[in-house]
Amino acid sequence: MKQKLIELFRNPKYAGIKRFSFWLRGLLFRGTRYTCPCCNSRLRGFVGRSGLFKSNNDGYCPRCNAKARHRRIWLYIQEHTNLLTDPLSLLEVAPWWSLARRFSTMSSLRYAGLDLEANNPFVNVVGDVTTIPLQTDSFDAALCIHVLEHVPDDARAMQELYRVLKPGGYALVSVPLLLNETTREDPSVTDPQERKRLFGEVGHVRYYGTDFIERLKSVGFNVTMNPADTVSTDTRLKYGLRNDENIFHCLKPA
Question: Alpha-carbon distance 88 to 140, whole Å?
Answer without folding.
Answer: 6
